[in-house]
Amino acid sequence: MLKIAGGLLLIAGTTLMGLRAASGIQDEYRQMQYLQQIIYMLQSEIRYSRAYLGEAFLHIKEQVREPYAGWLAQMSRSMDKREGGMFSDIWEKETEAYLSASGLPQEERGRLAALGGRLGAADMDMQIKTLELYQEQLAVSMSEKREGMRTKMRLCRCLGVMSGIFLTVLLV
C-alpha cells in the first residue's frame, strides 16, 4: 500500500514538474508579447507626443506592470541625472538589471540591450524607424517561438508523466 502511494506521489510530482516546464515556455512567449506592446507604446509616444525618450519612459511606466515599470522609471531617472555615461550604456545596464528575471528569453534580452545603442544616437525619425525594425525582428522571433511552442509544451507534459511512470516502475 505504501509503495502504491509513493508511486502515485512520484508520478504526480514529475507531472507537475512537466506542467511547470510547459508553463515556462508559454510564459516566455507572453513576455515577448508584452514587450511588443511596450515597444508600440514607446513608438507612439515618440511619434505622436513628440516626447524625448526620458519623458516617454515616464508616461509608459504608468501603464505597464513590473518589472517593466521599474525598468522604465530607472531609465528615466538615469537619463535625467545624466549618470551612467552614454544612453547605450544606461540602456544596456538597466535592461540587464531589471529584465534578467522577467521571463524574456536570453536572446531577446540581448537584442533589446543592443537596441539601446541604435536608439540613443538618433533623431526622432530615426528612433521611430529603429523601433519599427526592432518590432519586425521581435515579430519574427515570436513566430519562430510560436511554431515550436506547442510541440515543446506537449513534450514537457508527456516527459513529466512518463518519467514519473518510469521511476515508479524502476523503484517499485
TrEMBL record:
Name of the protein in its database record: Stage III sporulation protein AB
One Pfam family recorded for the sequence: Spore_III_AB
Highest taxon listed in the record's lineage: Bacteria
